Amino acid sequence: APDDSGAVRLSSRAVTSGLQTHGDLRITAQSITATNGALGLLDAGQASLSVQQSSSGVPSAVAAASSGLGAQISLHGAAITQGGTVQARAGTVALRTTGQDIHFTESSRTDVDGSAWTVDGVKVPIAAGLIKAQADVGHITVAQGAVLTASAATGVAGAEAGEVRLVAQQGEVR
Description:
Strand content: over 45%
Low-confidence stretches: 59-65
Radius of gyration: 16 Å
Structural class: mainly beta
Number of helices: 0
Helix content: under 10%
Order of helices and strands: EEEEEEEEEEEEEEEEEE
Strand order of the largest sheet: 2-5-7-10-15-18
């Protein structure tokens, strides 16, 4: 559910939380994030799923503290347009279409960057996560300006980058 900042925050660890529908699903929010270790699902079934940035005037970059660590956020639909901010620090963001394209717009940010925590005065790195986009039939398009990031935590010795995997089984990655 949206919080006071206009973000959609998914928060269940024991079971997958989220929203499933059989019609088009359009989400307009400042960001989509999840709490530590949460499993979140936004599923439009055989219809289209669209994530758009709200026009509230708040900057599109989300502060690192606003997203929990190690969450898994899944977006499913016949077609997906990712035009907002989806963040699962050191976690997984998975997008899967079953009939059409996945499109990352020029204003989108998909972020699974690594992080660090301090234990007894020592910064301990947490590896970045995985962005996985799979179009079973269609294409995957990444517009100029779109950000897909799985970067290692900065300024932390031993920090590891994650992975961005784009798979268009019967189409092209553009």
